[in-house]
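Researcher: Quick test of sequence recovery. Tokens follow.
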């Protein structure tokens, strides 16, 4: 489910489940973590680019897998997602997200783990989880406010609204927006510009900046996982995900 390519000092990691819009299931999360560990071990790699195959970056976590989870299983799935994405964030090398299409739920959370985010004009972002009876569970409640500010993050999470690339740019969620056919060329060009600089200095600079933005993040992610798991004990979660998977009308939430 993951393709890893190396071009000189640049690695390109592609999420490759196009038939499912690259939705993150347990196997994909394990593949991501395994590939990230290989990247970390390769001292020749100086920059990582992450993108998605087909018309999506990552359309979210796999709802077909999540819909029947209980609270403990939901918490475990959230922790698995957090571990895979945190492994990306904690890479000592710079990470660029080249967001080519839908980046929803777990996809938006994946992009948030990158140090720099580039988007196609066709990219769309959002945290739609509350419309499915759950919270963001792969770090969205913690990383999104750190990137775009508390109130803007609160609005996006609580409304479950999807936004286009131009609005994401205005919010500071992405750094640049390009025509679809230019996105990967621009990502590679940026990676090459970084890769020619002194590797030790680049890694040290990333570590210094991440120390500022990551204060208490691990504790906050644990709290998020507890809340995420608790949602899987509700009727609303079961009804919403069942409707999503079966493509039936969205239920009226009962609060139970």
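Model:
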């Amino acid at each position: 489910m993951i393709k890893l390519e190396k071009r000189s000092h640049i690695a390109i990691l592609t999420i490759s489940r196009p038939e499912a819009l690259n939705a993150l299931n347990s196997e994909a999360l394990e593949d991501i973590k395994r590939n990230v560990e290989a990247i970390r071990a390769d001292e020749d790699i100086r920059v990582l680019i992450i993108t998605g195959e087909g018309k999506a970056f990552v359309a979210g976590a796999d709802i077909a897998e999540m819909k029947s989870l209980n609270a403990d299983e939901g918490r475990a799935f959230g922790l698995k997602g957090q571990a895979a994405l945190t492994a990306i964030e904690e890479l000592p090398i710079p990470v660029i997200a080249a967001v080519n299409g839908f980046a929803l739920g777990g996809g938006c959370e994946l992009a948030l783990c990158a140090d720099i985010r580039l988007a196609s004009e066709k990219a769309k972002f959002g945290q739609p989880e509350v419309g499915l009876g759950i919270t963001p569970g792969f770090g969205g409640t913690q990383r999104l406010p750190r990137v775009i500010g508390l109130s803007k993050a609160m609005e996006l999470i609580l409304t479950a609204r999807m936004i286009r690339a131009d609005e994401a740019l205005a919010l500071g969620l992405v750094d640049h927006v390009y025509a679809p056919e230019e996105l990967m060329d621009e990502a590679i060009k940026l990676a090459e510009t970084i890769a020619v600089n002194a590797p030790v200095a680049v890694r040290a600079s990333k570590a210094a900046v991440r120390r500022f933005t990551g204060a208490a993040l691990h504790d906050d992610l644990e709290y998020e996982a507890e809340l995420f798991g608790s949602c899987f004990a509700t009727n609303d979660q079961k009804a919403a995900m069942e409707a999503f998977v079966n493509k039936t009308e969205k239920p009226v939430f009962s609060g139970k």
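The chain has eleven helices and ten strands.
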